[in-house]
Design brief:
single chain, about 180 residues, alpha+beta, two-stranded antiparallel ribbon, 6 helices, extended
C-alpha cells in the first residue's frame, strides 16, 4: 500500500506544483475584481463616502475615504498584474480589518440572514411571487478576502506575475 501511495504522490505532486501558480493567479484576479466595485463606488462620490466614514467615527473621514478608495484601486491594478502583490496585500488587509471593526463585525458571521418566500406582492404594478433574500451584512466575506490576501502575502503571486518576472531577472543579473 505504501508503495502505491508513493507512486501516486510522485505523479500528483509535480502536477499540483504546476497548478499552484494558476490557483494563485485565480486568487489574485478574484480579489482584484472584488475590490473594483467598492473602489469605484467610493471614488465616484467621495464626499458621501467621507460622510459615511465620519458617521462611523472614523477619524479624518475625507483623508481615510481617499486612502481606502486609493488602496482598493491600487489593489485592483497591482493584484491583476501580479506586481508588488505581497506589498499591496498589507494595506488591503488593514482595510479589511477596518471594515470588520466599523461595518461588518457587529452583524454576525453571515452575509445573508435568511430567504423569505412571498406571494401576491406588487412590483412595478404587477403581481409577483418569489423569494426575497434578507441581507445581514456580516463579516463572512471580509474573513474570506482576508484569508485570500494572507495567502498572497505568505505565498506570493506565483510564476504568472510581473513580480516573478522581475525576481527572475534580478537573480540572473546576480549570477552574472
Amino acid at each position: 500500500m505504501q508503495c502505491q501511495l508513493t507512486k501516486m504522490c510522485a505523479i500528483i505532486m509535480p502536477l499540483t506544483e504546476k497548478l499552484k501558480s494558476v490557483s494563485l493567479l485565480g486568487l489574485r484576479l478574484i480579489l482584484a475584481y472584488t475590490f473594483l466595485t467598492p473602489a469605484i463606488m467610493k471614488l465616484s462620490d467621495i464626499d458621501s463616502t467621507a460622510l459615511w466614514f465620519g458617521s462611523m467615527g472614523i477619524p479624518f473621514p475625507t483623508l481615510n475615504a481617499y486612502m481606502a478608495a486609493g488602496t482598493e484601486m491600487a489593489g485592483v491594478v497591482l493584484l491583476t498584474l501580479g506586481l508588488f502583490s505581497r506589498l499591496i496585500s498589507i494595506p488591503l488587509l488593514v482595510t479589511m480589518l477596518v471594515a470588520f471593526i466599523t461595518v461588518h463585525g457587529g452583524n454576525g458571521f453571515n452575509v445573508i440572514s435568511e430567504t423569505v418566500q412571498f406571494t401576491g406582492a406588487y412590483v412595478n404594478g404587477e403581481m409577483v411571487e418569489g423569494t426575497v433574500v434578507l441581507l445581514q451584512n456580516g463579516y463572512e466575506n471580509i474573513l474570506y478576502y482576508s484569508l485570500m490576501l494572507f495567502i498572497i502575502l505568505t505565498h506570493g503571486p506565483g510564476v504568472l506575475s510581473i513580480d516573478h518576472f522581475i525576481s527572475k531577472k534580478m537573480n540572473e543579473k546576480r549570477e552574472d
